[in-house]
Amino acid sequence: MKALKHESSVAPFIPNDGMARQEVRCAVRFPLALPVVLSTGNEEVIAQSRNVSASGVLLELDRALPTGLDIRFSLRMPGPVLGTLNDVLVHCLGRVVRCSLSQSQYLAAATIDEYQFAEQ
């Protein structure tokens, strides 16, 4: 099975103050609450997705993750979201791009740099 590498184009964003910045959001997000187990190389962290796109995922978890941390995780994507009859397991490689505390949960945004569909 071949791993797919995701490449995204980042459009420039010019805010009201005239300073150019990079707009990071470049894919449609799906509001999906899916269980996720992250592997950081040293440990596993239990999380739940809040939303998923082709280029990244927003995760809700009980602890902070450092920015830049490489992670591996799998998502069981619902068939109706993908337009398939059955759910599809997707193995992903990415990295944490930001993490913040929101009320009592941490929210970590992570890229999906590579993904591979599992054979079922």
Describe the structure.
The protein is built from 1 helix and 10 strands. It has one helix at 79-82, and strands at 4-5, 12-13, 21-22, 35-39, 44-52, 56-61, 70-77, 88-102, 105-111, 114-117. A hairpin with a 7-residue loop joins strand 2 and strand 3. The chain is globular. The model is unreliable at 1-17 and 19-23 (pLDDT under 50).
Short description:
The chain is mainly β and 120 residues long.
Q: Main beta sheet: strand number and arrangement?
A: 8 strands, antiparallel
> Helical region count?
1
Q: Topology as H/E string?
A: EEEEEEEHEEE
Oligomer: single chain
Could you tell me the mean pLDDT? 83
> Helical content, roughly?
under 10%
Counted beta strands: 10
What is the CA-atom radius of gyration, in angstroms?
15 Å
Q: Return the structural class.
A: mainly beta
Give the distance, in angstroms, between the N- and C-terminal Cα atoms: 12 Å
Strand content: over 45%
Low-confidence stretches: 1-17, 19-23
Shape: globular
